[in-house]
Amino acid sequence: MTRLFAQAPSRRHFKISHLVVLLICTVLVISAVVGCAQPGAMNASDVPGAAEGVTSSDSLSGSDQQETAGSESSAPGNGSAEPGSNNSGVDKSGDSTSGNDTTGNDTTGNDTSGNSTSGNDTSGNVVHGSDALSVASFLFFSDTQADPDTGDYSAFGTLLANALSCFPNPELVIFGGDSVNDGGNTDEWNDFQSVTRHLLTGLTTASAAGNHDNNALLATQFDYPAAHSPNAGYSAGSSYFYSLAAGPVFFIILDSNAMGAANQDDIEWLRNELNSSEAKQAAWRVAVMHHPMWTIADNPKDAQRAETMQGSFLPLFVEYGIDLILCGHQHSYARTLPMSGASPATGSYAQTQPQSSQQPQPQPQPQPQPSDENGIVQIMAASGVKGSYAAGERNYVAAAGSAPVFLAIEASRNTLRITAHDDNCVEIDATEFSRAAGVKSPDARRIRVLDSSGSELWNFSADSLGELPAAQSGAFTHVYSTINNWPSVRFYAADGYKIEAILARAGVLDTAQTVTFRAADGYETSLTREQLLSRQNYFPHAGDNADGAVQVFPIIAFRWREGTDDISEVREDKPLLIFGQREYTEHTNPAFVIGLTDIIVDTEPCGRWAPPGGFPLPGPIAKGETVKLQHADYGLVKLHYTTDGSDPNIKSPMYNPSTYQTELNRPIPVNESMIIKVIAIGYGKSDSEIAVLEYEAVG
């Protein structure tokens, strides 16, 4: 699948001005023209507001990975988007392929040269919206396709007109994909435009890619992703990922057609976008995608895609504080409970009580017993006349109803309110998120220190640690050497705070026996007191020798970079547990934890790894045969052994240096009677007792 992708996102910001500035500018232009013919024409100082210094603000901005490929055809009602203008959406350039076909209903690209419309010039400012507004409004539509048998879009035209009558002048009009049945058919797009163009003129529009309109023509129909560079080689099947900041909301627009393949490039791009200053400064973070993260109807392909997205993308949603997911695809209205993984969650992250409204009412679903966690709410809407999917049984649906439906969104710094409306603008459901309700701020990225019962002892963030005196914060910056289970040597540049100082601040340094470090996705590592506090090193020649060893310390790194020994290359990233090597051969890398959220302290004495064994069992063995060392937790420990009678330790030869290259785990030949001594060393428990395996060579 040919796709547009750039390794690093290049950001472009699109300035939005107050409506009053347009009026001022208009008056100035008129006055200038009139002034040429009539003495005494109004000058700038006569314009109301000019003396007060009225200025525009950047309430709507876009960040992209690459100029969008497509044509010079304009977005609806906004004239021709010139190459090089700042009104570009985002695609990702480069050729990327995947083993899974996740595009669904791919169509071929068509020539768009005849699809240009006229209206407002999009090469400069779009005139509406401001960060200064106390409340910003948005509209969301999805699956607006006509009935395939008739091709008639008039029903959606009526719904759109009613929506804009009830909620005029929205900051942004968002489409969730599948605006048409065949995204490669210019005539069908023209039919869609015939009922929308006059209504959307002067408004800013954005669209996610659906499985029916995942096509080059999509870029010519909306402001985002906008036509920008007709010579970039865009082709059908390419993916659309981009972001927009509008008012207090950061919108991340995702191509769920591609997400089913879980490409690492897409995951990395999402991480970078959610880690951007625009995302962090926004009061709310909203993801828009066509396919649902949590399905409503029983469809095997949708379920498989959802499972992949939950495994690969949802952890980033959780880590970086996505508040809401807007989606479509299954032609129904449905709002989930706050979700955590595949299950419902509880907490104050969203106030999602359905509020009274006129009929028709959404049908409530059975309420589950949720877990004690915060979660993300998903709202699915469908605004066209195509038949709804048959709803399956779901224990996570808070409210549900039939299509057609659109969403009205009102956002301030403290509240995010979403109302669902039918085609007559009757409200059928309402949900409100409130920062005032004690919501966790994802910007803080606070890490909790818990005792073994789950009670919080302390919490901290990079900012709170940075405010402490240096002697208390334990600030530490260095390069770390490591070896993974391939095995390969890697280097990390890391800047953070010593775990010893964190435990001291939490009041548990003197009593901690085992400390577990857990990430948002559930991955965790445990370290014993000895493993945390014993000397650790950076080895410039890790894997080869101990020359040039420098002492380092276990830290939580908030700024780090993998694959470099240049400390100047560190960058802000998800919190990372990283520690040094006790020996230059130690495999520390699998125990690093990215996206750390919890540190659990256990004051009870730690356990001990079971002793290793050998196969065949100790005793007589034919001369020339080999002994394989074994352990019940073979993947969690390293087996170190000796054959000279000395006691093994971490410096002794390693029997199982690779988890993946089993040929490196070589059995021990027995050419004469011998004693093999083996010890199991792994994180989270004390070293095992030394196993003494005595073999008598016979024959």
Structural write-up:
By secondary structure, the protein is of the alpha+beta class. Strand 5 (136-141), helix 2 (154-166) and strand 6 form a beta-alpha-beta unit. The chain is elongated and about 90 Å long. Mean pLDDT is 76; it is low at 1-133, 227-237, 346-373 and 436-444.
User: Within the largest sheet, what's the order of strands?
Assistant: 2-3-8-9-10-11-15-12-16
Low-confidence parts, pLDDT < 50 over ≥5 residues?
1-133, 227-237, 346-373, 436-444
Mean residue pLDDT: 76
* Share of helix, binned: 10-25%
Shape: elongated
Q: Tell me the structural class.
A: alpha+beta
- Biggest pleated-sheet summary: 9 strands, mixed
User: How many individual β-strands?
Assistant: 38
- Gap from first CA to last CA: 62 Å
Approximately what portion of the residues adopt beta-strand conformation? 25-35%
Rounded to an integer, what's the Rg over CA atoms? Answer: 30 Å
Itemize the secondary structure elements and their pairings.
Layout: E1 2-4, E2 10-12, H1 19-37, E3 60-64, E4 93-95, E5 136-141, H2 154-166, E6 172-175, H3 186-200, E7 205-207, E8 242-246, E9 249-253, H4 256-259, H5 264-274, H6 277-281, E10 284-288, H7 300-312, H8 314-319, E11 324-327, E12 333-336, E13 339-340, E14 343-344, E15 377-380, E16 397-401, E17 405-411, E18 415-422, E19 427-434, E20 447-451, E21 456-460, H9 462-466, H10 470-473, E22 475-483, E23 489-498, H11 499-505, E24 514-519, E25 524-528, H12 529-533, E26 536-538, E27 550-552, E28 555-562, E29 571-578, E30 593-594, E31 596-602, E32 613-615, E33 619-622, E34 626-630, E35 638-642, E36 668-669, E37 674-681, E38 691-698
